[in-house]
Amino acid sequence: MLYKKFFTPLIVIALLAAIFLPSVLLGWFALKQAEAEFAVRHYSRAAQSFEQAARLLLWRSDLWQKAGIAAAVNADPLQAIDYFQRAPVLTEPGWMWFGSSYLSVGNSRAAIAALQQGLQVYDSPALYTLLALAYRNQNNFLAESAALENQLRLNAGDAYAHYRLGLLLIVLEPEQALTHLMFAASLDPQFDPAVQTLRAALNLSSTQPNASQQRVTLGRALGLVQEWDLSILTFEKAIDLDDKNAEAWAWLGEAKQQTGGKGRTDLERALVLDGTSVVVRALRALYWNRQQKYEQMLAEYLRAAELEPTNPAWQAGLGEAYAKRGDLILALAAYQHAVDLAPDESTYWRLLAAFCVENGVHLEDVGLPAAQRAVHLAPEDPSALDVLGWVYLSSGRYANAEKILLGVIERFPDHLPAHIHLAMTYLAQGNRAAAFEQLTYVRSADPDGANGVMAAQLLKQYFP
């Protein structure tokens, strides 16, 4: 009887072991395999192995998160989201990858929900960073600023967070913006050029006669540092303060164009409000230029030049408009008038030289002296140096061109036109390998921009 008393439980245990032990062993094997695959960066296989282990080792609640992280690192956000949703508990890295996976598929609302849930458990600067990005994607700049403030509460040394918060405060609370901007520049010098532009605008805005014009000044500065989304809000605030502010309407139209919109309605409104504003006329000229309506572009610059006959900018605009209409004689005269009005400004000498080289006219007697004068006035300006190299190239002075352009890209590697002109110099010298290297660099550095497109065209032409 005693034998039977113990024999029955042993049978049950043996049966359970026979049923479950193989699954447990398979689960442990899958887990070890997953960890090894993750260690050697085979993330796709690691995610699958972690999934298998999670299904077999039911008490290991962390394995669904591990599968999710592996899938996320493998740039498979949809699979990662599925794994994270199965995880009963997530750690701080898990919430980070969960939120970033939603961001990767463009679902900012779900990302915000996930990140906010994670923040209920972890007061994490990294989670606030992602939350700020999610709100930015929604153009919810007030919520973004709050997330950035929390991020900086936990990590005061993040230069970009200070810079971004400073940008937002220019729109929301301008008097508080400069502190964050200056601190960003002190932490990371790469922000200094933009910060100096914004600092000058903040100082200038305080001298403006009214609040609406102050906002226009700030919006223009945001545009200069390529923050056009924020500039739109700033110009709209200027209009809210004074809906008769023609410049605010004109700049709003420009900002909308910069962000892929049309802007024509706003420019028309600006013209109705003040047809004598040179700012309105100039921004309308830019609009017509983008539309390739060069007659209308010319008319706007003619009116601006009539209103301000001593402003060289309008003469340069006339030169561009005439050139695009094919009136090279009038274009040359306009560019020369610009340098007569501003003989000590490098910009207009550079534009005159560029006109000559682009159109192959007066290279020796006008273009080369203009380029040399531009460099003399601004020896540290990569655009001036680049134009001089370009003139040397176009006039057959290949050794001079190569020397100048190599100097430009050594000192200013991000000045992509110099790379293109150097590639053209190499092609003229028969050095195809060096030309190919320069062109592929530009194509990779600026795939969607004008320089990248030009480089791609040259590669197609010379390296089919």
Explained architecture:
The chain is built from 26 helices and no strands. The chain is globular. By secondary structure, it is an all-alpha fold. The longest helix has 38 residues. The N terminus is likely disordered. It starts with a helix and ends with a helix.
Q: How would the blueprint of this fold be written?
A:
Elements lengths: L1 H38 L3 H14 L6 H11 L3 H10 L5 H13 L3 H12 L5 H13 L3 H14 L4 H14 L4 H11 L4 H14 L5 H14 L3 H14 L4 H13 L5 H10 L4 H13 L3 H14 L4 H14 L2 H14 L4 H14 L3 H15 L4 H13 L3 H14 L4 H14 L2 H14 L4 H13 L2
Helix pairs in contact: 1-2, 2-3, 3-4, 3-5, 4-5, 5-6, 5-7, 6-7, 7-8, 8-9, 9-10, 9-13, 10-11, 11-12, 12-13, 12-14, 13-14, 14-15, 14-16, 15-16, 16-17, 17-18, 18-19, 18-20, 19-20, 20-21, 20-22, 21-22, 22-23, 22-24, 23-24, 24-25, 25-26
